[in-house]
Fold each of these.
Amino acid sequence: MSFVRNYWLSAVAIVVSAVVFLIPFSFIILMAFKDKTQAQLLDFSWPQGMHLWSNIVEVVTTRNWMLLTAFINSTILTVASVTLVVILSAMVGFVLQRRKTKFNGLIEFLILAGLMLPPAVVPTIWLLQGLGLFGKLHGLVLIEVAYSLPFSILLYRAFIATIPRELDEAAIIDGARPFDVFFRIVLPLLWPVTVTNIVVQSVAIFNDFTNPLYYLPGNANATVQLTLYNFQSQFSTSYNLLFTNIALITIPPLIVFLFFNRQIVAGMTAGAVKG
């Protein structure tokens, strides 16, 4: 009984989490196994026949293999954006933590503003059009980097605060230049928080729906989330194909979380316990 009293809140949290996440996921999987007629019912009934493979084939081949193109675009977008976010945010976090100037307060205010203020879509589109980047993949990469930097900078800065400054000073005495201090001394020590940042930002950017919708029009530039429009229309929706598409684009982030769950938790807490 003492065990129940001590851990009842944790048990309730686990049950609620299971209900919130497992029931919708099981509904997606069930719908992916149904044909179009049964899927229109939108219920938890058992599939009358296994139509998963035919649904997958139709989803993948729709609009000249648009889903494969979308996976390629999303992969390029995610890899390029996360690479820039990790490098830039680590460098900014290092400078903010190590160099105290009169501009630090202003810079920190702008970083927090980037977290709190909503994106200005129309002015951003005007800016991209002026730069000739609207509707181009590398333009969206810059958008994703800009939106992801504030959180990443704060994450790196908090972690760098736990790294002794004496390491920097010893490297400088040995003749290391500022870039050598960062890339050869500090950056390798940031591996736990870097893994966390890579996983979190990769899943967020890969699953991003609104930014590609606003800034990357056109079927050739479609990302995986935008392929959901393929099976929806004003008068008819192929729910079996829609949920099959959802299942296909959900699997990669799910696998990432399953394999890197421990690293995510360790990276988020390392800055608090590192001596």
Amino acid sequence: MKKWTVCQISKQTGYWKIDFDDTKVKIDYSEYLNIVSSKGEMDKRRVNELTKIIHRGSFLSNVEYDWLDTFKSDLSNEIIDAYLHYAATIKIADDPEFLINLANYVFYFDPVNEEAMIIKCKALVHLGKHSLAKTKFETFNKEYKAIYGEEFKHSFQEILE
């Protein structure tokens, strides 16, 4: 058997396995796992690394199999949790623009995420963009009602408190 240098696909255990030299092969999923598995160590740099991965598109976006749905959903939930976990560690006043971007990243996976909407509205208000915050809240309300068939339970003023 020839010694592999970069990547090798095998079926030694009965399952397909890919062995690779991570110094020579870049795999988004491997990077993703490294980032989300260390939520306690999330910082702005790691959030930006995760964002670089998701900006390339969702995982396995061109692959549609029922058995993959749970996997894709779990990935989305982990990404949302990582972003929101980091957002909870910083104050709106410290970096409102970055928090707006974080909220937008969450909306990429969940357009009616309540926490992201609250973060975005508070950050916009902090920047003095009250009408944009109100518009975002109203857009969120419309999407929320279309999906759940009921009004969002909080008013604009309540989410800002």
Amino acid sequence: MNLALAPVVDDDFEAMLALRIEALRESLERLGRFNPDVARARLRAQFRPEWMRHLVRDGERVGYFTVEPREGELRLQHLYLTPAAQGQGIGAWVMDHVKARGLPISLAALRESRANDFYRRHGFRVVEEQELDIEYRWEPAP
């Protein structure tokens, strides 16, 4: 498997929205909260190509992630993979890439999403439970 990162440009919005919807649909439907219009508005509000990278496997885009730099830490805003690309080590590869920056990382995961198990396996600890999301934090070793 050949993994690479590719830059995001403004024209990528629609393709990234489709990928986000595909990745989140099952979890959101289970919670009765699937709404394509809300998905579009949320991605539009957080669409910052300079913080985003496509995940490319063997020449095909299979996901993307967004890392927002904050003072003294990073915020992982998005990590979405197509369902066909999940469970193949791509998410772990991203975690290694982001953790290599050596800064604390915060993120939120949708309740009842399989992502919660993924983040816990990668050393994130729960810092707050909200109605729809669970907030996590990872700290680098001193």
